[in-house]
């Protein structure tokens, strides 16, 4: 039904829309009875769907990865950039793991070594990019890196001889733990038998 362009309109006090003056009373009665203005976005929604509108559009949501609650609008950004449980890959081994564990993993993974085929030295993965830009491709004459590493290991082994008392303490701790587990299992077994009798 076409509305004549010269017909005057009035603004509905409930929905703030222009309504033809001849229909304003009927519209207003219908509008107040059936529509509600969303307190968050200002959209007019049917009263019977107001709660559903709020839950689907504005209610805080929990991240499926870390359970943190946030507004729906930032959930995608959170999951992609901020969530500690989002899956990221290690820059050294490309292993996928939660972001919260990345720093600890890369600390260990970056200390692994690979042989540089230009200079025949073992280079830490975390230093590989810097090494590749500086590597001259000339092998050093200090002997093979395996020989150097073997000598370093021998020196380290001589320096790090564990004292005897720490071995005794370890054995004592293992023995006490074993006794505690044994006593605990016996106590639990007796408690279960007693509860079955009653």
Automatic annotation (TrEMBL):
It comes from the Eukaryota. InterPro entries: Innate_Immune_Apopt_Reg, Znf_RING/FYVE/PHD. Keywords: Membrane, Transmembrane, Transmembrane helix. The chain crosses the membrane at residues 170-188. The keyword Transmembrane applies. The keyword Transmembrane applies. One of its GO terms (cellular component) is mitochondrion. PANTHER family: EXPRESSED PROTEIN, TRAF-TYPE ZINC FINGER PROTEIN-RELATED. This is XIAP-associated factor 1. It comes from Herrania umbratica. The lineage of its organism: Eukaryota, Viridiplantae, Streptophyta, Embryophyta, Tracheophyta. The gene is LOC110416627.
């Amino acid at each position: 039904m076409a509305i004549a362009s010269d017909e005057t309109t009035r603004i509905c006090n409930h929905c703030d829309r222009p309504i033809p003056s001849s229909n304003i009373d009927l519209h207003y009665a219908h509008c107040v009875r059936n529509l509600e203005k969303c307190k968050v976005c200002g959209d007019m929604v049917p009263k019977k769907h107001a709660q559903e509108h709020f839950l689907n559009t504005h209610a805080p949501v929990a991240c499926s990865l870390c359970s943190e609650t946030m507004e729906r609008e930032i959930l995608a950004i959170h999951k992609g950039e901020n969530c500690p449980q989002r899956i990221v890959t290690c820059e050294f081994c490309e292993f996928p793991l939660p972001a919260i564990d990345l720093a600890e993993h890369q600390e260990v993974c970056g200390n692994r070594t690979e042989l540089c085929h230009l200079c025949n030295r073992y280079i830490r993965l975390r230093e590989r990019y810097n090494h590749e830009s500086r590597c001259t491709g000339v092998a050093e004459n200090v002997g093979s890196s395996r020989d150097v590493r073997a000598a370093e290991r021998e020196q380290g082994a001589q320096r790090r001889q564990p004292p005897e008392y720490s071995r005794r303490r370890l054995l004592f701790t293992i023995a006490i733990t074993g006794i505690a587990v044994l006593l605990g299992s016996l106590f639990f077994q007796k408690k279960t038998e007693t509860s079955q009798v009653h």
